[in-house]
User: Fold this.
Amino acid sequence: MPGPPLGPGGPWIPLSPDWPDSPGAPSGPGGTCDPSGPGTD
Assistant:
């Protein structure tokens, strides 16, 4: 199932392996961005 919309930045948070990695995040099992974060992974 698809993940929630990705935010513009924030720490990378591993979630379901079916969800895509965030932009700029290290390749991994999938995750999302915290839109309130500082824009770093």
User: Anything to note?
Assistant: The longest strand covers residues 12-14. The CA atoms of residues 9 and 23 lie 8 Å apart.
